[in-house]
Amino acid sequence: MTLPRPAFIASAATIVVLFLCWLFWHSRSRAPAPPPSSSVAASGPVSATDTEDLAPTLVYAHNLLLRKGPNFRIYIRWIRGQMVRTRRQVNPSFDDPDSFVLQIQKGVIHANIGDISNYLNTSSPPNSPLTNISIQPEGEQIKLQGTVHKIVPLPIELIGTLSPTPDGFVKFHLTKLNVLKVPLKGLLGGFHVELSDLVHTSNIPGVQIVDNDIIFDTQKLLPPPHIHGQITTVRVSPPDIEVLYGNAGNDETRLAQWHNFLRLSGGTLDFGKLTMHHVDLTMIDASQDPWFDLDLVNYQAQLVNGYTRMTAQAGLEIFMPDLDEQTPKKAGQSVTLEWLKDRNRSLPVDVPAK
């Protein structure tokens, strides 16, 4: 059957269109997959914002009494360094002192000799071979007295010098050991007491014995928040032991004139229910005491009794009282929905009127 010419032309056109559609679909099926969209690609490389959040927070402090757990404290005359996160995906947090390390670049830190004695006695394991520890300054050296338990309890006395190690540790070099007030030659004598008899390093992390030296890794030995840095000098300065980091200056008269404060800037920080990006936070001692007593474990008790204001750069300045464990103050009453409904109600008593 012969189609009329117009019908033939229409049928040919239909076949051509179908063929072109098939060819286009076939070529599309062989084409490589398009690159991922921007939303998918963004989940790969770390963005500039992520890099800023992961950056360490700069730390600057003067005249800060920092509590490290319930039984130890250090006196920071001044430091400059960084708050470095210990886990990449966990922000440094005041609520988790193990979440960061204070990496000191330069500064001066004191530890009270009596506090060190108390901490060693309270933190030693029950089966510790050395008990009843007492530490006193002996000129430029340290004298440690205690009771060593070997067959029978023996009073013992050690005298030695303190010095830094290249690894940022503190070394106690033993120069004299007495048992029952009878000098022993070297580390051995009639009672066969050795330095290793005094400390079971397997029970105490952060302590290592090498010949006549005891090496202390204070980052492992002391409670958090942990402190690390290049120690340049360790010296006895009664009633304290003084540790210098970097090329720190130590003009006590000039340093004592500074306000007591802790300043943090950059990076990310958690505290309470808040997360602060591009950290700009300054904690200032509201008292005139020589030291700013700050307990990061119980910082909220100090925050609620202080005064907080926002700066023009969206930073926070917090004027905080010292921690007073004897007369704790009650936190200010929270604002309720009922209070918000009535504009005639006065401001809470702890809010300064403008």
Secondary-structure topology with pairs:
Layout: H1 5-30, H2 38-41, H3 48-54, E1 57-67, E2 73-85, E3 100-112, H4 113-123, E4 130-138, E5 141-150, E6 152-164, E7 170-179, E8 182-183, E9 207-210, E10 213-216, H5 218-221, E11 226-229, E12 231-237, E13 240-245, H6 252-255, E14 261-265, E15 268-271, E16 274-277, E17 280-285, E18 292-294, H7 299-304, E19 307-310, E20 316-320, H8 337-341
Parallel strand pairs: 1-18, 3-11, 17-20
Antiparallel strand pairs: 1-2, 1-14, 2-3, 3-13, 4-5, 5-6, 6-7, 7-8, 7-10, 9-10, 12-13, 14-17, 15-16, 19-20
Relevant terms:
354 residues; alpha+beta; seven-stranded antiparallel β-sheet; 8 helices; elongated; transmembrane helix; membrane
Provide an overview of this structure.
- This protein has 354 residues and is α+β, with helices and mostly antiparallel strands.
- Among the domains are: 53-102 and 246-320, no CATH class; 114-234, no CATH class.
- The protein is built from eight helices and 20 strands.
- The protein has helices at residues 5-30, 38-41, 48-54, 113-123, 218-221, 252-255, 299-304, 337-341, and strands spanning 57-67, 73-85, 100-112, 130-138, 141-150, 152-164, 170-179, 182-183, 207-210, 213-216, 226-229, 231-237, 240-245, 261-265, 268-271, 274-277, 280-285, 292-294, 307-310, 316-320.
- The strands form three sheets. Strands 1, 2, 3, 11, 12, 13, 14, 17, 18, 19 and 20 form an eleven-stranded mixed β-sheet that branches. Strands 4, 5, 6, 7, 8, 9 and 10 form a seven-stranded antiparallel β-sheet that branches. A two-stranded antiparallel ribbon has the order 15-16.
- Strand 7 (170-179) and strand 8 (182-183) form a beta hairpin.
- It is elongated, with a radius of gyration of 33 Å.
- It starts with a helix and ends in a 13-residue tail after the last helix.
- The chain crosses the membrane at residues 7-25.
- Keywords: Membrane, Transmembrane, Transmembrane helix.
